[in-house]
Amino acid sequence: MDVSQSANHKYKHDHLSIYCVIIACFLFSQYRASNGLLETSYDGTCEPIQVAMCNGLVNYNTTKLPNKFGHATQDQVYWALQPWWPFIDAGCSDNLRNFLCGLFLPKCVGNNVEPHYPCAETCKKAKVRCKKQMRMQSFKWSKDFRCGKLLPKDSHRCIKPEREGKKKQNKEYNLCQKNTLPMCQGIPFTFGSLPNAYLQGDQSEIAKEMRQYQALLSTRCSENLKLFLCGVYMPYCIEGPKAHSANNANNELQDVDNKIPFVVPCREMCQEVYDQCSKEYHKLTGGLPWPAKLHCHRFPTSLEYHYKHRTNASTGVNGDRMTCTMPLPN
Asked: Which pLDDT does position 163 carry in this prediction?
């Protein structure tokens, strides 16, 4: 073999070795990915949780990114969590929020230390409770959510499960009840309806979620922000036209309260609040988008009607009733 052939052979051998190393690295990375979560660096510092689905609703306040899905910002986490929001609000499991928030926004326990992810038991409880409801909605438990790849609670290095309460198959609608939400005291409407459009029916849980908007309220970005938020989280029960009843002893007509339940803010109010407050929210949350629950396409316009019926002799109501409300004139 001459010198040129030897050099050419050595080049091919070295090139093949490099190629094999690249392929091996690729296969190893695919193996790690196929086994659920990616390995991440423990470097970095804690940062406050800003994502609305988790902010103030889990038992820790700071996280560390990137997470094991490779999300480096809370904006990326926000979009990754969006499909799961309806199932959290519907309450299929008391552990679903803890599991999802812990998975995407792991609990920071110190700088340059591995954050805590959900325990395997937290994952299993959420999966068992929610997979049937998800299946009914043609929604599958993610293949990336592998409970067996998470640490057991006995490790004391993971987010432990909550005790599951009694599962309610159907939520009873309470057409008009006293609104006791702390943020909503002092607004013109003192009664509201639950569950809301997101199937949230517990005022104490709703109050916890609403607290994350307190900083936004403090900016005074819109005089109608409080009225809007309260109507979203606990739709108003408002006074309608007086009905008439002849149930007294003398068979005389009496006025009877005729309350209209589930009245939400009009889209025009929503758009006004969004225009005035979305930039402040973006600033306060480190760049997160306006929460999906508050998107204005969800609300009817002031020209849209819910009840369409003819004059009724028993109620004396003529025409249509609107399903949304605008700010009352000063």
From this structure: 92
State the pTM of this model.
0.76
Query: Which two three-digit tokens encode residue 67?
Result: 């997470």
205-209, 212-216, 253-257: the lowest-pLDDT one: 253-257
Q: Bigger pLDDT: 326 or 109?
A: 109
How many other CB atoms are there within 10 angstroms of residue 145's CB atom? 17
Closest CA to 221 of 277, 279, 290, 270: 277
Taking CA atoms, 321 is separated from 35, 106, 263, 304, in Å, by 55, 47, 10, 9
Which two structure tokens, joined as six digits, stand for 164? 């599951």
CA distance 328 to 324: 12
C-alpha to C-alpha distance for 85 and 73, rounded to whole angstroms: 19
Q: How far apart are CA 270 and CA 266, in angstroms?
A: 7
Q: How many CA atoms lie within 13 A of 185 on its CB side?
A: 4
Q: CA-to-CA distance for 87 and 84, rounded, in angstroms? A: 6
Reported as a pLDDT band with limits 50, 70 and 90, residue 286 is: very high
Smallest CA-to-CA distance from 184 within 234, 219, 223 is with: 234
What's the rounded Cα separation, in Å, for the pair 298 and 85? 15
- DSSP H helical segments within 257-299, as ranges? 267-284
Token representation of residue 35: 């086994």
Query: Which is nearest to 232 in space by CA: 305, 329, 325?
Result: 325
Measured between alpha carbons, how far is 197 from 270 in angstroms, rounded to an integer?
A: 15
159-180 burial, b for 16+ CB within 10 Å, e for fewer? bbbbeeeeeeeeeeeeebeebe
* Exposure of 193 in the CB half-sphere (CA atoms within 13 A): 17
Q: Could you tell me how far CA 102 lies from the centroid of its own chain? A: 14
Gap between the Cα atoms of 59 and 118, Å rounded: 12
Give the H/E segment covering residue 308: strand 305-308
